[in-house]
Structure formats: structure tokens, C-alpha cells
Amino acid sequence: MHSPYYFLKTFFLLIVLVIVSSCANYYQTNIRFNNAYTSGDFEEAEKILNKKKKAALKKDRLIYFMKQGSVAHMQGYYTKSNEYFEEAYKVADSYHTNLVNEGVALLLNDNIIEYKGEDYELLYINYYKAFNFLRLGKKAEALVECRRMNNRLTYINGKYGNENTLKRNAFIHLMMGLIYETNLEYNNAFIAYRNSLEVYENEYTTLLGTNTPYQLKIDVIRTAFLTGLYDQVTYYENKFNIKYKDIPKNTTEMIFFWNNGMCPIKEEWSINFSIIPGGDGIVTFVNSDLGLSFPFPMSREEYKNNNFSDLQFIRAAFPKFSERPLLFSNAKIETNNSTYSLEKTEDINAIAFKTLNDKMLREMGKSLLRLAIKKGAELALRKQNQNAGMLLGVFNAITEKTDTRQWPVLPHSIYYSRVPIKEGLQKVNFSYSSRDGRSTKRFVIEVVGYKNEMNFQSFNTL
User: Fold this and answer.
1) DSSP class of residue 421?
2) Nearest to 409, CA basis, from 132, 42, 23
3) Are 262 and 349 in contact (CB under 8 A)?
4) pLDDT tens digits, residue range 429-454?
5) How would you classify the pairing of strands 424-434 and 440-449?
6) Nearest-CA neighbor of 197 among 176, 174, 180?
7) I want to staple 171 with a disulfide (CB 3.0 to 4.6 A). Which of 19, 184, 346, 428 is the partner?
């Protein structure tokens, strides 16, 4: 029989654990890597990851491979980057639900189960792989990633039914169009561009506030012409008030992506719910300030055994995003006495917020069901042993955490431009300004133009 002093000491120890465990999210527990990456010290970021190679065999292995792929990509090691991203793809593609772990997660939290990735994160695995292949001049391999992206898009589109849910990705369709076009598959390119246009018009503009890029309108018209779909050329010329123009002879095109800023950080926040017992075993979790109400039906036996009639209030933890605001904007490219602006094509920051918002009610329901079970068990144990029930209550508080895992080094937004360049080695000027307009940074980029080839380039501002 333990003394009251033993229980008091254990109680305070658990309180300390509660405080410590509740202060750090996934981003903060990996702060050394994140600081190295965001400061541009990719060699150090790689060293930190290499010291944690065992992570490749554990529940966060998807994130491990995605981060390794990102670091190698930023260093220009495109083949090495694709090796890591291929491992990430295999992990995501082979993911299956472990019923035992899912059951334990229902009693503890989702951090104990393998991270399967958000739908939008998984799309960017193939985007980066495709871009790496294009940088390596491996157009056929990029085409494989294009088809993988299409399969993932089909899966996501069939997964959701709510019309206000973000189900499609305009940027990925655009990227697919570029890959098809560089492989001279103009009909498939036209279809991909047209699909991208539809998503921008019907989903991105209303749900994300991202407008249709002007360049995409030109791409749709041009590939319709190259495919021989002249009725479509006329239709889109009239729709956009743009006339078809062929690419001038003795020129090729540079496809330029600007990956700007960093994606939002996933954090934890909590909400207090009042618990209102009802008749026939109905238990309702209510937060009047937020207008939330979650009823849980229970059998009479469960209701009685779990002491739900004794519950008054409870704290539940949920994920949220905190934006890392953009520092730079208004980028442009200057070459051959001409200036080309870069248009926003993908707002990953907005997609992350929208995706979490779309599934928040489901997340809340799952968390509250878990808490109801845990709290009921605590109250039942208190009736048998007050001290043991108290310790279980503290344990429940410790384990009441939300899953804040993510791919933390995706860009905030992606901008894009198509720039005519001449054949051979040449220099182009890339510049971007701070959001307040007070400073401008300029860089000279050397590119090589090849006849009838699209040259893919990117620039990253962290």
C-alpha cells in the first residue's frame, strides 16, 4: 500500500510532465533541423537528419524521407533527392491502417500511429520528383511522375463529396501540362491545362483567393492550336480576348518557378467544452462561444458504467496552423530587353489552412469521443481509489495532445513564368522586392537554351 506522500510526489512529477509535453509541437521538437533549413544551411540540415537515420524505420518515416528529399533538392543533388522522394512515395503508397494502433490512438492520441501525410503533401512528392527529372533532362521519367500525380488527383477527387471542400489541385494540373508539352504530347498537355483552368476558375478563386494565371490562358490556346482543335482556339480566344501567337523562331522557353517563403507551422490549441448529460445515454459536448455541439449516443450500460452523468467540463486539444508571412513579393525576370512578371500559381499556405478547416469537425468529433472514454474511465477509477483515479486523470491530461506532424519545409507559395530565351548560354536577371517595397534583391542566373527544348529553372527564398 503506497503512502499519501508517494501519490503526492507522483502527482507533482506528472504535473511537470504535463507542462513540458504541452509546450512543444512537432516543429519545435525538430527545431535544430528547421533552423538550419530556413537559414539556408542545408549541409547542417543534412547532418542533423543523418544523425536520425533510425527515423526511416519508425512512425515518422514519411516525413524523414520528405525532409531528406527537400534538403538534397535545395543543394542541387537531384538524383539523390529523387531517391529519397521515391522512398517517401513508396511509404505513402503502401500505407495501411493498423487497427491495433488505431485503437490505442483512440485511447491516447494520434501521435503514436504512423504519419500518412496530408493529400496535398503527397502531391508535392511527385511534383518535386518531376521537377528534379526535368532538371536532369530525363523527360520520360518526369512523365511517369505526371501519371502518378494524375492517379493521386483522381483518388483525392473521389474521396470527398462536399462541394465546398478543396478536392482538386490546379497547380499540379498545370505542372502535368508542362511535362506533357515538353514530351511533345500536345493533346494531353491541352487537357491538363484545360483541367487546371477549370480548377482555378471554380475552386481556387473562390476557396483560396488564387486567380487564374494569365500565362495559363495562353498555354490553353497554344496547345489547342498545336493539337488542331481550332474550334477550341476560337472559343478561348474569345473568352479571354487573347489572340494566338506562335513562339518566335530561333527561340526556346525557360520555365521558371519561384518558391517563395515557408509553409505554415502546425501547432496545438485547446477548447473547453461543457458536458451536458441527456436522457437515454446521450452526452453532448458544448462550447457556446464557438457554437459547437457534439452529441454522443451511449447505451444505458455504457452511460451508467462510465459515469457520464458526473461530467461537467473537459479540455480538448486540436491542431491549428500559424502562418509564416511572406517577406518578399513582386518578382520579375529581365532578358533580351524584355521584362516578364511571375504569377502566383500555388498558395500552399492557403491550401493548408483550407484542408485543416475542411476536416476540423471530424477531428473534433474524434478527439471528444476519445476524451469521453478517458474521462469516464477516470471517474470510474476514482470511485474505487481516489488517488489512483487522480493519477489516471493526470495521465489523461498528459496524453491529451493533437498531432502536429507535417512536412515543414514546403514553400508558402509558388510563382511561375514562361520566358522566351535564345539558344546557347546566356544570362537572365531575376529580382524580387520586399513586401513593403523598400528593398529589392537582384540575381544573375545563367541558363542554356536548346532548340525545341523547355529549360526548367527555380529560385528559392526562404
Assistant:
1) E
2) 42
3) no
4) 999 999 888 889 999 999 998 888 89
5) antiparallel
6) 174
7) 346
